Amino acid sequence: MKASSFLKTVLYVAVLYAATSHAAGPLTAAEPAAATQQIIPAGSQPSITAPAEHFTGHVRIDPVWPANADINASGGLVTFEPGARSDWHLHPKGQYFVVVSGVGLTQEWGKPVREIHPGDVVWCPPGVKHWHGAAPHTAMTHLAVTGTVDGKNVEWMEKVTDEQYNAR
Amino acid sequence: MKASSFLKTVLYVAVLYAATSHAAGPLTAAEPAAATQQIIPAGSQPSITAPAEHFTGHVRIDPVWPANADINASGGLVTFEPGARSDWHLHPKGQYFVVVSGVGLTQEWGKPVREIHPGDVVWCPPGVKHWHGAAPHTAMTHLAVTGTVDGKNVEWMEKVTDEQYNAR
Fold first, then answer.
1. Is the Cβ pair A70, B36 closer than 8 Å?
2. Is B113 on the interface with A (CB under 8 A)?
3. What ipTM goes with this model?
4. How close B2 gets to chain A, by Cα (Å)?
5. Least confident among A140-144, A154-158, B34-38, B74-78
6. Which of the listed ranges A11-25, B29-43, B111-125 does the model predict with the highest average pLDDT?
């Protein structure tokens, strides 16, 4: 598969990290941070609109922490407006997502749609095809903790149809 | 160093995961999860009181996700009552912590105490000696994302004295 827009977004975020001067130098995934404690201040990581190519409806990503040479998963808050959802996809190193607010939906390929609520933690193992998003009339924010291997963290597939989304 | 109480706590949490029946089977760090999406429901992970041996004041740990065969860092919410803090320690694979609420303090050995606020993300590289906790009169909750290597994620050292804590 060709490099996805989402991957480009992740790379863009990595560039943002590289471009932002923190207290003790830049913090990038490619280049290990200096061996000193560093603070990424609130407000220093711009919100990103998730690409329409891989999502339905309005979805915002707020980066929290990047994967680095030591920790192999990034963290980001993802906010889905009512009815919004990702396309079908898989994660080569798996993904946890933790519902922070609202009401969400998620589905593994071939299984029923599940409703998820604040405090629920979902583990999607590597290679499992799934989608996640908001409920039809309620927004949802989750923290996505996504494993990264060789710079890749997602493989995109087809869109979630309205029929699939509403099959409950 | 001998196995710490905190490590015992982490092992206890792993045992809790093993003992808790989830929708699609147990989820443990040692045994990779089945290749199917799993939900850890809100309310299924008991709160833990952090051991007095390694903390000053009252500190509560709410486990969020365990490290596993794919993602090498666990996540937990840690709530420090006013004045409470960890002992000095280091993390063999580093740690991110994300302030969720309140006002916190953190210090790297030999550097000034820093005040941290909601939305601030701190990266502590492997081997860097530090402590973190609440401000003197304000509680603080952070999400700790702690790298794990060979089942170890922390090495405990001496207590943070009142003189060190108040040196601002």
1. no
2. no
3. 0.82
4. 24
5. B34-38
6. B111-125
Domain range list for chain A = 5-33+45-165
Structure tokens at A119: 């405090």
Taking 3-state DSSP, the helix, strand and coil percentages for chain B, each rounded to the nearest 5, stand at: 10, 40, 50
Using the Cβ of B100 and the Cβ atoms of chain A, whether some distance falls under 8 Å is answered with no
Q: Report how far apart, in Å, the C-alpha atoms of A36 and of each of A95, A164, B18 are.
A: 28, 48, 36
Name the closest residue on chain B to residue A113, using Cα atoms.
B37
Contacts of residue A108 in chain B, CB cutoff 8 Å?
36-37
Instruction: Indicate the average pLDDT of chain A.
Output: 86
Q: Choose which CATH entry (3.40.50.980, 3.30.300.30, 2.60.120.10, 3.40.190.10) describes domain B46-165.
A: 2.60.120.10
Q: Please tell me the predicted confidence (pLDDT) of residue A168.
A: 85
Q: Is B93 on the interface with A (CB under 8 A)?
A: yes
- Please check whether residue A54 is in contact with residue A72, taking contact to mean a CB–CB distance below 8 angstroms: no
End-to-end CA distance of chain B: 32
Both tokens of B54, joined, read 């390694």
CATH number of A5-33+45-165: 2.60.120.10
Q: Which residues make beta-bridge pairs with B134?
A: B104
At residue B16, φ and ψ (nearest 5 deg) are -55, -45
| CA distances, B39 to each of A59, A112, A125, B15, B122 (Å) | 22, 13, 12, 17, 28
pLDDT band at B137 (very low <50, low <70, confident <90, very high): very high
In this predicted structure, what is the pLDDT of residue A73?
Answer: 98
Task: State which residue of chain A sits closest to B119, comparing Cα positions.
Answer: A42
Q: pLDDT, tens digit, for every residue of B17-61?
A: 333 333 334 445 544 545 999 999 999 999 999 999 999 999 999
Counting runs of H as helices and runs of E as strands, what totals does chain B give?
2, 14
Indicate if the pLDDT at residue B101 is higher than 50. Answer: yes
- The span from the CA of A27 to the CA of A21, in Å, is 8
Asked if B71 lies within 8 A of A75 by C-beta distance, the reply is: no
